């Protein structure tokens, strides 16, 4: 064993935890290569969703979320990840090279890592109790520590965001290629290792007030008595960056993971929403009308309390580590 370096089992455990990251349509568009004293993250372009994500922005954000999950997992396993983002300009799909430095895991590292297997995308109605301002401030701080702004959207800006979400849904749903892609990637049978299972999609309508959630294949998740919940008080956060390149998207993905894990650790339910940023027209609307033209929107995240009587959500499937990780020499 190389002293001060993670052994093979530790690297595999960290890659397995990274694999639990959220990704657009649960496409898991990443792969890893292990070097002698390093680990490398690559975008897996074979898992692109051309109709949903024509810019490839969600793909890089998803990889960023996996990178942050890896960092959190490694820290709990006793290693600080030293990350070099886009280490080789000639290889734009080589998203990160990671080196390891031993650290003593702290209680907060372990707490955050333990949120990884508990986190779920919750597409159900949230309760009428809003998330406390102090918790929202903490989520904003968490994103900022990753170099990303998180805007808590309210008032007129929130109305504009809801309009943009509805408009994006109309535009996407009118596109046969988008509808085919949604059919291919959701409602998948048990035993599939990717895609959004019916068990994670609410049965029946899941529009909450003026918020339209993405339509997947028909779902089987029972929402319980919505009447008991009152009006959904979910909060919308918009994550944004100062530039709109792949480095910004990778960072936005890391911030996404950080915010979602922090929210999970605090007991909040959460759901990423990317539709308004997948369509050029509504991406511009969000930038100009919601953020006042000041920065580039990357992802919307909805947070709130799950209904007081809500069942735990099932885990979504993941690709096995053996399909995600190979040694560098095996090229
Ligand atoms: C970049 C990105 C965009 C996403 N967009 C949406 C979305 O628009 N609507 C939605 O319901 N879920 C969205 N998700 C959540 C994924 O569908 C979810 O992470 C995936 O199905 C795995 O499930 P899990 O998060 O419960 O593990 C998004 C996730 C990411 C990382």
Which helices and strands appear, and what pairs or packs with what?
Blueprint: H1 8-18, E1 30-34, E2 38-43, H2 57-77, E3 79-85, E4 94-102, H3 107-115, H4 133-144, E5 149-153, H5 155-173, H6 176-185, E6 186-188, E7 196-197, E8 207-208, E9 211-212, E10 235-241, H7 246-265, E11 269-273, H8 275-278, H9 280-290, E12 296-304, H10 321-324, E13 325-327
Parallel strand pairs: 1-13, 6-7
Antiparallel strand pairs: 1-2, 2-4, 3-4, 5-10, 8-9, 10-12, 11-12
Bound molecules: flavin mononucleotide.
Flavin mononucleotide binds next to helix 2 and strand 11.
Characterization of the model:
It is globular, with a radius of gyration of 19 Å. Strand 8 and strand 9 form a beta hairpin. The chain has 2 domains: 110 residues, NADH Oxidase (3-Layer(aba) Sandwich); 172 residues, NADH Oxidase (3-Layer(aba) Sandwich), CATH 3.40.109.10. 46% of the residues are buried. Helix 1 crosses helix 2. 37% of the residues lie in helices and 20% in strands. The mean pLDDT is 95. By secondary structure, the protein is of the alpha+beta class. The strands form 4 sheets. A 5-stranded mixed sheet has the order 3-4-2-1-13. Bound molecules: flavin mononucleotide (FMN). Flavin mononucleotide (FMN) binds next to helix 2 and strand 11.
């Amino acid at each position: 064993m190389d002293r001060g370096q993670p052994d093979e089992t530790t690297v595999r455990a960290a890659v397995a935890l990274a694999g639990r990251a959220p990704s657009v349509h649960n496409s898991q568009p990443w792969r890893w290569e292990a070097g002698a004293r390093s680990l490398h993250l690559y975008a897996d372009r074979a898992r692109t969703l051309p109709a949903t994500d024509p810019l490839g922005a969600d793909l890089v954000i998803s990889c960023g979320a996996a990178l942050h999950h890896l960092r959190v997992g490694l820290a709990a396993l006793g290693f600080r990840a030293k990350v070099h983002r886009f280490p080789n300009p000639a290889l734009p799909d080589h998203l990160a090279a990671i080196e390891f430095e031993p650290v003593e895991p702290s209680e907060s590292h372990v707490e955050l890592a333990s949120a990884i297997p508990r986190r779920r995308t919750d597409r159900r109605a949230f309760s009428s109790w809003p998330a406390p301002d102090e918790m929202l401030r903490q989520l904003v701080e968490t994103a900022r520590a990753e170099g990303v702004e998180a805007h808590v959207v309210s008032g007129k800006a929130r109305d504009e965001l809801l309009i943009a979400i509805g408009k994006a849904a109309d535009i996407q749903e009118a596109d046969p290629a988008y509808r085919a892609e949604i059919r291919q990637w959701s409602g998948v049978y048990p035993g599939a290792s990717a895609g959004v299972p019916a068990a994670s999609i609410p049965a029946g309508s899941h529009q909450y007030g003026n918020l339209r959630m993405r339509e997947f294949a028909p779902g089987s998740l029972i929402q319980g008595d919505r009447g008991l919940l009152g009006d959904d008080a979910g909060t919308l956060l918009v994550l944004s960056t100062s530039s709109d390149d792949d480095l910004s998207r990778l960072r936005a993905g890391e911030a996404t993971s950080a915010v979602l894990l922090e929210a999970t650790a605090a007991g909040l339910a959460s759901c990423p929403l990317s539709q308004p940023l997948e369509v050029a027209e509504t991406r511009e609307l969000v930038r100009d009308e919601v953020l006042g033209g000041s920065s580039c929107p990357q992802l919307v995240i909805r947070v709130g309390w799950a209904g007081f009587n809500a069942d735990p959500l099932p885990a979504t499937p993941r690709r096995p580590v053996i399909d995600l990780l190979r040694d560098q020499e095996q090229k």
